[in-house]
Amino acid sequence: MHTPVTIIGAGLGGLTLARVLHVHGIPATVYEAEPSPMARTQGGMLDIHDYNGRLAVEAAGLMDEFRGLVLEGRQAMRILDRNGTLLFEKTDDGSGGRPEVLRADLRRMLLDALPEGTVHWGRKATAARTLGDGRHEVTFADGASVVTGLLAGADGAWSKVRPLLTGATPEYVGEAFVETYLFDADTRHPATAAAVGGGSMAANGGTPREAIHAHRESGDTLHAYVALTRPLDWFAAIDFADPAAAAARIAAEFDGWAPELTALITAADTAPVLRPHHTLPIGLRWDRVPGVTLVGDAAHLTAPNGEGANLAMLDGAELGQALAAHPGDVEAALVEYEAAMFTRGANPVDEAVLLESLFGDGEVPRELFDLMQGREEAS
Prior knowledge:
Elements: E1 2-3, E2 6-8, H1 12-23, E3 29-31, E4 45-47, H2 53-59, H3 63-67, E5 77-81, E6 86-90, E7 100-102, H4 103-112, E8 119-120, E9 125-132, E10 135-140, E11 145-148, E12 151-153, E13 171-182, H5 185-188, H6 190-196, E14 200-204, E15 210-216, E16 222-229, H7 232-236, H8 243-252, H9 259-266, E17 273-279, E18 292-294, H10 297-300, H11 308-325, H12 330-345, H13 351-359, H14 366-372
Parallel strand pairs: 1-11, 2-3, 2-12, 3-8, 5-14, 12-18
Antiparallel strand pairs: 4-7, 5-6, 9-10, 10-11, 13-16, 13-17, 14-15, 15-16
Helix pairs in contact: 1-4, 1-11, 2-11, 6-9, 11-12
Organism: Amycolatopsis vastitatis
Protein name: Flavin-dependent monooxygenase
GO molecular function: FAD binding; monooxygenase activity
């Protein structure tokens, strides 16, 4: 089976690529392991930045649809200490460059903007191999396979396409999130809702080993990421199949913290979910292999830093634009795309720039910035 462009993975990067190709009249087929668009929750809030994610939305021709997804007021920010004492607060006056949307809504926007049948659901890639002459074959869990002259791996941290280009594999960075939700928080947990406020909240106990991050999603739903710096063996000793026991074990690491903060663990309405953080080598590059490339986490996975989804979308948009700009010359397009993508991957987020984008002008204590690290969703 042959397709003009084959994309493995229907995350934000793969779907942005498919949409930009569609805008330019280039057909593509996306293969996704999940059985349907609603097979699992898609993570929480995303702040879409005006210097990367928004550029991708514009390239996809979906700015009007995007504006309709923005949740007003969610750029507000609160920094607390372990006692619940407010250290810093920033309101959302609508002028910030990081509007917040739900990841699931953003993904649905992209899916709705593609021709019916573009995404083939329930097709889990298990391996890929090079056939020569720029052609590659991807095999799926059901035994079927597809051969393509242009393969884009948008299949995340554990990409099955990446081995065609490099032997690099993700490594654990020593930290993980434990993810929880509180529903109807304004009514059932008013103190916790007040602590989080109308946007995002971050708190730690004075060291980088424990922190609690949370944000308000639609309505009065609170989504928390409990950050712990521990070896994987420590987490492996926790029975996450027993939600109550797992929550109690995690909460024990926050003994003495304000109850309105620990309620994000102990009163959660969902079972705690472990999200270990992995990274690929910073500045990862590979030699050009005809007919194949990577976007998003498949290419430059890092621990959550607020940029992952934005960069994946920008990758997808720029690859689509490069292919449109070089009709009939796939290799020229891939060379152009990878040059820009490698540059981004070799230059991690500049802390001073991120400070300014988060807090605006003025002096911001460094410790407040440190508290904000890792505030993007786990994916």
